[in-house]
Amino acid sequence: GTTTSMTFDANGIINKPLQPASNAYVSSHFTIPINTNHDVVFGSENYDVNSDYDTSNGRFTAPVAGVYCFTGSVFTNRTTSTGDYYFDMMHNGGTLYRIYTAKNGSVSSHVQIEFCKTVKLAVNDTILLKGQISPGNIGIGASASHTNFQGFLLH
Length: 155
What we know:
Blueprint: E1 7-8, E2 14-15, E3 21-25, E4 30-32, E5 38-40, E6 44-49, E7 53-54, E8 59-61, E9 66-78, E10 83-91, E11 94-103, E12 109-121, E13 126-134, E14 138-140, E15 148-153
Antiparallel strand pairs: 1-2, 3-6, 3-15, 4-14, 5-13, 7-8, 8-13, 9-12, 9-14, 9-15, 10-11, 10-13
């Protein structure tokens, strides 16, 4: 079969229907236990052109070399302890970018953490989000509008 990889309309607008792009979200609340480096798996998808995001392990795998943009947000619920927590965007197993926040006092808190990062990837490079907390546990909210992850090829 034949698949159209690019079209141009009369106004010069380019449509690339096979361009790598995915949008995933957390559909079931889960907890990140104390002092663990926990994979954040966005187990449901709104779309995933080319199946580049794996909902079973939380990894986006680059199908082609290029510059990619990764964005998203994580809704957290913390009811115990003062302490730090952060999320690491991992590139091939190494930390590329850290998203950090702290909690003071014994008051319950909800925090919406948002991120956006561009990165140059080679074919089969992977991106994964990991979370860690110390001390206490942190709950991750389940909602497509609150806890989500997007990845797409820029060029």
